[in-house]
Design goal:
CATH superfamily of one domain: Winged helix-like DNA-binding domain superfamily/Winged helix DNA-binding domain
Shape: elongated
Radius of gyration: 21 Å
Strand order of the largest sheet: 1-3-2
Largest sheet: 3 strands, antiparallel
Number of helices: 6
Number of strands: 3
């Protein structure tokens, strides 16, 4: 499958993994987190955490700052704002009966009181 270059698609795809979503949730609570501390919240090893942090960084979700031998991560406010904008563009259409959604008409039951 060809990798999308659309930044909105990449932003949304990055959140579709349970480990990456856990990382984003941890960052939203803690603010900044050292890379070494994510394995506790995610239940995966450090190499896996590093992979997911790279995906989040490439998608524009997080910033990384080296402090000595450690790298600290934080959510980019611009990414959160774009995520909200994308979600805000979606709206429920007019309500339709379930039969219309499935494309199959349901027979009326004789003698049913309405």
């Amino acid at each position: 499958m060809k990798r999308s270059t659309d930044p909105d698609v990449r932003l949304l795809q990055a959140t579709a993994d349970p480990t990456r979503l856990s990382i984003l949730r941890e960052l939203s609570v803690e603010g900044e987190v050292c890379a070494c501390d994510f394995s506790d919240c995610c239940g995966v090893g450090q190499p896996t955490v590093s992979h997911h942090l790279r995906v989040l960084r490439e998608a524009g979700w997080v910033t990384a700052e080296r402090r000595g031998t450690w790298i600290w991560y934080a959510i980019r406010p611009e990414a959160v704002a774009r995520f909200r904008d994308l979600a805000g563009e979606l709206a429920a259409g007019p309500a339709r009966p379930a039969a219309a959604l499935s494309g199959v008409a349901r027979p009326l039951t004789a003698g049913r009181a309405e």
